[in-house]
Structures are given as C-alpha cells and as structure tokens.
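User: My collaborator sent over this chain with a note saying "see what the structure looks like." That's all I know about it. Can you take a look?
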Amino acid sequence: MRKVLYALLALGPVAVLVDRFTDTGEIALFVLAAAALIPLAWLIGEATEHAAHHTGPGIGGFLNATFGNAPELIIALLAVDQGLTEVVRGSLTGSVIGNLLLVLGFSLVFGGRGRLDRESSLTSFALVAIAVLVFLVPAVPGWDGDPDRRSLADLSVPVSIALLLVYVAVTWYALRRHHRLHTSDEASTMRAWSLPVSLAVLGAATVVTGFVAETLVHSLEVFADELGLTEFFVAAVIVAIVGNAAEHGGAVVVAYGGNIKLAAEIALASSAQVAVFLIPAVALLSWAIDPLALSFRVVELAAVGGSVVFAAVLLSGGHSSRLRGVLLIAAYVAVAVAFFFVGDR
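Assistant: Without extra context I'll predict from the sequence alone. Here is the result:
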C-alpha cells in the first residue's frame, strides 16, 4: 500500500501541469486534483510521524495534528481569495463532522471492542461544543441579511481570538498530561527518517499541496454546476473528505492494527483542532486577503452540534464497538443527505 501511495505522489505535479498547459475540462481537473491531494495528505502525515520520532510523542502529536490539517487550511485560504465564502465555511464544518462521525465511525468498525481515553475524548467533545456555542455570536446576526457583511467579519475577530486562547490553554494541558502518561523509553521499531529529511519532506509536500489545492478550488464551481451539485455540498462533503485524507487513512490503519485508543484520539483531536484552531486561524488570516465572516448557517451549526452530542453519548462510557462505529457512519450519511437537499439555500 505504501508503494502505491508513493507512486500516486506523481499525481500532484501532473495535476498542476495539466491545469497550466492543457485545456482539460473542469470535471477532470477537479477529480485529478482531489485524487492528487490524497497521497499528499498521507505524505504530510508520514513526515510528521517521522519527525515525532525525534521530537517525542507530545510535540510529535502536535505537529501531526497541525500539519495534517495543512491541506484544509490551504484550500480554505484559496477559496477566500476567490470569494467562495460558503465553500470555505462548508468545507470547515464538513471537516469537523467528518472526523466526528465518518473517521471515528470507520475507526470503531475496523478496531472493534476496546477502551478509549475517556478524559481525552470528553475534552475533544467539549471543545467542539464550546466552538459551536461561540460561533453563534457571528452566526445568528448572519441569518438575517447579507451573511458576508463587514460587521460580521469584525465580530468574528474577537470570537476567533477567544477560541485560539482556549486552544492554546487546552493544548498546553494535554501535552503535559500525555507527557506524564507516556514516560516509557521503549525502543521504536520504526525506521525513522532524520529530522532534517522529515522537515524537508513536510515542507515540499505542503508547497505542492498548495498548487494542487489551487487547481481544486478554481475548478470547483464548474464541477458542481456540471454535475448538478451545489457548491456547499461539494465543499462540505467531497472537499472535506479529501482534505482530511491523512486523518482518515491514518486512523483506520491504526485501528485495524489494534490500537483503537490511538485511532479514536486521531479522529477526535483532529475534529477539535479544526473547530477551535483551524476555523479561527482561517478567519484571522483571511484579513490579509478578504475578511471572512464566521456566519455559519443554521444547518451547519445544527449538524456540528448534533454530531458532537450523538458521538459523545455513544462513547460516554469510554468503550468502543463495531455497532457504535456503524451508527456513527449512518449518522454521517444522514448529515450528507441533509446537506445535499439543503444545498446553497
């Protein structure tokens, strides 16, 4: 499988060259760019895992979560530059929901029965719930009138800063907790790259991801129109799944290997990081391009809020099972269907 993924990395340069020097249709371009992002997302996750071998599990996990979300950050900022604000908001909320329901669901299906880190799971659920409540501040005024008006973008700034402060505080606590829990110096069986190589690969993969994401974003509108799909659905479901490829694949592989606790941690930590770090970061960075208002629609916040409550209830006991995984996947399908019918309304 790894050899296949390494071979598929060639899709990145191919997608960029096809976009720049051919007249290939937008549907083919979108599909090619989406396919190219999957091995790139995997490589970013792979490079951060190798870097973690040298930096330790705490910093390594932080790097993995942060750079694992690099494709989503790049896609969001490129969409902001093109004025696709609904695409930005849809892809970000879709990412939170995808991690909470789809990634976690498949992890439980492949991992089966096991114990989860209950405290860590509840922390992630709480962070997403807090984010939903805080997002109501700029969202509610946006339900009446223009959701992209400047006053809502201004209102999104203190909201974003508050969430980032929460993220920093909780991350600091979590890193200290995991450092206390993981004191073993057992030798790793992993043949790690050197730290300079890991960081070089990480940088190169992120740069290529930026070019491929640009192709994906500017072909998205035509792709949606020609297939009769709304931009919101494409962003919240298709783009969100592609942007989360690293977490999707990584969590499932880890779960299949028997480490269901770590697999659940990957899915839940990623959903929390998107909610309290990535979304505020996009909102603040957008001021260098075009200020973005965090005026999420009712359906988006209801879907995120419902997802976190449903997942929290299922996993409140700190145990996993395949049945719980199936229920989470079924809930994701229901959300995707709702997004399809709601569309851009």
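A starting point for your reply to your collaborator: Residues 2-183+190-342 form a domain with the A middle domain of Talin 1 fold (CATH 1.20.1420.30).
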